[in-house]
């Protein structure tokens, strides 16, 4: 599904060039449940942004279903995000002046072509996903009346609105207490297992990374573990056993890369 | 993105930031109100000045005169004339739609009457002009026609051969028989003649000839007067004499006696006089400014009666109807090439002054709106900065850069539309207030208009459009900056 090869990314501050990703090769297959872990500043969020097509300024190649993302123009990339990706962030990013239902239906506003739908249809679909996250009774509520866990559920509902194949989550439990984080994790697991949605989660949370079927460990701008079988085969110099000194524990047996996750 | 959704988002955002936008749009409201107000004022004044005081689609041509001044006298050395040939040449000038020759009454005359209007009969010297009835047909379309009822007859008294000139004893007989525009001519003349005969007998002099054997029905000479006279009378003259204010509409039908060949200046009086009665049938700016205007046929017959046949074909001026106001300069130049002059009405100077007035105030208003647009730009820059994460999440959810730019520009357009509507409404309200104050507190003056403003729909649409355009222009750079928002940076801090 997603194939990254030789992806490099650097930021320049004045005369200082900070290379954040230094030739990343990763494969992520359909229906995988992947955690990206690493120290702060290791490049995991940058990698997530590139995977989610939020960042298109990089070197190397990102291929999705055989199509190079960098061949798409701004409208093409935007359309790709709209149709295929659901985003979940630590800070929820809900529009405070809109009701929960309107927030959830917001992706419909930016849908193009065959994906565009009437307002009524969008709101109906919004109710459907609000039910899915068990917040049907909060459709008309404003986000500032909800708890952190409820807000994240609304954000998940928004991410699910366009039936995405891929969900990109950046520290989704970072602002939640343990029990709420557990409930969100259960929801992610259900989405992955029941609907086959591919989930890529950047996290520092052990509970989350342990629950994932595969962990991609990134250290100092390089993937040091869990790059995927093909990526490892094509770049044999990559040592999957290298200890990056990460503050995240190594994946458990259950979190090892699954065979069907390979492209 | 659908327009309705775009506007929906824009309106939601405006509601969210209504205080900012309210403050930012005050400048637009003031600017657009000033723009609309002053241009409407200019348009209204222009309408009165160029439409009523100096009609610009008509020019009056007069013969060129070569004079020298000798002490207090101006002695004419040579004068061009306007005859039938000149009239034809004038008609041949490009963009001249029609030529209407005018003829002045060249004999002293007097007018008497007015009791019904002023409370007393007044006697005054008559200055009279003759025009082709078709020239004033648009102005005089009331119940009384303006036409030469005695056209085709021989001499000024030839009317007695007309079939309608039936014998009578009183005006009522003629009114009943022929209509309201008839009176019984000769009753007063015979009474005067009898007095003159008696006086002649006493002085043992030759009695004057009998003016008519029997009184006969005759139509009043239709008379029109200029709106200037009414304005001058109502605005100034009546105050000096304590006369009532005249309602022009009810003055139509007013009748008076006309005596041709008579004058208050004894030396000017002719040895014989002709009499008739006139009836005011309407008002026209084409009429002579001070005096009475009648169909040119009457003037021609009177001038021939007291002069010679040649005077029948000599006009004192000609009114040229021009296709468009824009062609006036070209036609005026062609007229001057024919050794004729165009009367200086002051219209060009007035038009120029009004145009300058409109340009200055229009410019000032545009500057106000421009400054407001800069203010709008600052507000949008600030809001775009504050809403970075909102814009970022919209980008993450599928909004393209173009979508973001359109959202911001739509917000600006909505602000412009609202501010423009309020500005236009304020201008109209201020105009109405101004008119009300004028109506109530400003004394009458010549040409005092009912309204000083012309809120032409095109002006209102233009003002509305300007408001939107300036806001959109003001929001352009902020919208471009918003479109460049990097979602990765604002959402994940990378």
TrEMBL record, chain A:
Residues 227-263 are annotated as: Disordered. GO terms for molecular function: ATP binding; ATP hydrolysis activity; transmembrane transporter activity. Keywords: ATP-binding, Nucleotide-binding, Transport. CDD domains: ABC_MJ0796_LolCDE_FtsE. InterPro entries: AAA+_ATPase, ABC_transporter-like_ATP-bd, ABC_transporter-like_CS, ABC_transpr_LolD-like, MacB-like_ATP-bd, P-loop_NTPase. Residues 2-245 form the ABC transporter domain. Belongs to the ABC transporter superfamily. Macrolide exporter (TC 3.A.1.122) family. This is ABC transporter, ATP-binding protein.
Automatic annotation (TrEMBL), chain B:
It holds the Pfam family FtsX. The chain crosses the membrane at residues 21-41, 352-385, 406-430, 458-479. It is found in: Cell membrane. GO terms for molecular function: transmembrane transporter activity. Keywords: Cell membrane, Membrane, Transmembrane, Transmembrane helix. It comes from the Bacteria. Its main location: membrane. InterPro entries: ABC3_permease_C (IPR003838), Macrolide_Exporter_MacB (IPR050250). One of its GO terms (cellular component) is plasma membrane. It is a multi-pass membrane protein. Residues 363-487 form the ABC3 transporter permease C-terminal domain. Belongs to the ABC-4 integral membrane protein family. This is Putative ABC transporter, permease protein.
């Amino acid at each position: 599904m997603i194939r990254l090869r030789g992806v490099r990314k650097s930021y320049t501050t004045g005369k200082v060039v900070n290379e954040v990703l230094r030739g990343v090769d990763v494969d992520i297959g359909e229906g995988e449940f992947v955690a990206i872990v690493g120290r702060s500043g290791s490049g995991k969020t940058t990698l997530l942004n590139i995977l989610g097509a939020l960042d298109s300024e990089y070197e190397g190649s990102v291929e999705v279903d055989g199509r190079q993302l960098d061949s798409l123009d701004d409208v093409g990339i935007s359309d790709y995000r709209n149709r295929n990706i659901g985003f979940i962030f630590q800070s929820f990013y809900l529009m405070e002046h809109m009701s929960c239902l309107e927030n959830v239906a917001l992706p419909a506003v930016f849908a193009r072509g065959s994906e565009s739908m009437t307002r009524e249809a969008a709101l109906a679909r919004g109710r459907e996903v609000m039910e899915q996250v068990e917040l049907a009774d909060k459709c008309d509520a404003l986000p500032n009346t909800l708890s952190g866990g409820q807000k994240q559920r609304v954000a998940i509902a928004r991410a699910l609105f366009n039936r995405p194949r891929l969900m990109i989550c950046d520290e989704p439990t970072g602002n939640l207490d343990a029990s709420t984080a557990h409930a969100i994790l259960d929801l992610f697991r259900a989405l992955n297992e029941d609907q086959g949605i591919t989930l890529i989660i950047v996290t520092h949370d052990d509970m989350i990374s342990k629950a994932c079927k595969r962990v991609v460990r990134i250290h100092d701008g390089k993937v040091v573990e869990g790059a995927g079988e093909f990526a490892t085969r094509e770049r044999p110099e990559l040592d999957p056993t290298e200890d990056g000194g990460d503050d995240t524990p190594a994946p458990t047996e259950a979190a090892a890369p699954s065979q069907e996750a390979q492209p | 993105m659908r327009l309705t959704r775009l506007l929906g988002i824009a309106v939601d955002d405006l509601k969210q930031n209504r205080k900012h936008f309210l403050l930012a749009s005050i400048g637009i409201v003031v600017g657009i109100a000033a723009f609309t107000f002053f241009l409407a004022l200019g348009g209204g004044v222009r309408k009165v000045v160029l439409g009523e005081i100096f009609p610009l689609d008509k020019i009056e041509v007069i013969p060129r005169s070569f004079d020298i001044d000798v002490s207090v006298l101006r002695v004419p050395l040579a004068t061009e004339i306007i005859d039938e040939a000149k009239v034809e040449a004038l008609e041949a000038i490009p963009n001249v739609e029609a030529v209407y020759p005018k003829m002045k009454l060249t004999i002293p005359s007097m007018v008497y009457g007015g009791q019904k209007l002023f409370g007393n009969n007044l006697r005054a010297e008559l200055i009279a002009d003759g025009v082709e009835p078709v020239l004033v047909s648009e102005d005089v379309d009331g119940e009384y026609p303006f036409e030469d009822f005695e056209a085709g007859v021989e001499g000024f008294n030839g009317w007695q051969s007309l079939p309608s000139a039936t014998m009578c004893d009183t005006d009522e007989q003629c009114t009943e028989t022929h209509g309201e525009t008839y009176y019984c001519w000769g009753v007063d003349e015979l009474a005067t003649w009898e007095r003159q005969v008696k006086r002649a007998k006493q002085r043992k002099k030759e009695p004057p000839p009998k003016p008519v054997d029997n009184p006969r029905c005759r139509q009043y000479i239709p008379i029109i007067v200029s709106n200037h006279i009414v304005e001058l009378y109502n605005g100034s003259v009546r105050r000096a004499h304590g006369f009532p204010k005249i309602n022009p509409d009810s003055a139509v039908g007013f009748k008076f006696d006309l005596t041709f060949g008579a004058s208050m200046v004894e030396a000017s009086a002719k040895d014989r006089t002709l009499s008739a009665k006139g009836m005011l049938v309407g008002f026209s700016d084409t009429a002579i400014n001070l005096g009475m205007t009648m169909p040119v046929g009457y003037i021609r017959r009177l001038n021939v009666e007291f002069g010679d046949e040649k005077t029948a074909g000599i006009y004192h001026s000609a009114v040229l109807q021009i296709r468009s106001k824009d062609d006036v300069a070209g036609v005026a130049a062609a007229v001057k090439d024919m050794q004729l002059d165009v009367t200086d009405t002051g219209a060009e100077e007035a038009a120029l002054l009004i145009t300058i007035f409109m340009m200055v105030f229009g410019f000032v208003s545009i500057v106000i709106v421009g400054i407001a647009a800069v203010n709008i730009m600052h507000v949008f820059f600030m809001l775009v900065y504050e809403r970075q994460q909102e814009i970022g999440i919209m980008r993450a959810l599928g909004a393209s850069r173009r979508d973001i730019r359109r959202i911001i520009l739509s917000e600006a357009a909505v602000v412009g539309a609202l501010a423009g509507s309020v500005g236009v409404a304020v201008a109209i309200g201020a105009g109405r207030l101004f008119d009300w104050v004028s109506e109530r507190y400003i004394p009458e003056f010549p040409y005092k208009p009912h309204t000083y403003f012309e809120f032409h729909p095109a002006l209102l649409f233009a003002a509305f459009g300007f408001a939107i355009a300036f806001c959109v222009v003001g929001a352009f750079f902020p919208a471009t900056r918003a479109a460049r928002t990097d979602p990765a940076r604002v959402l994940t801090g990378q």
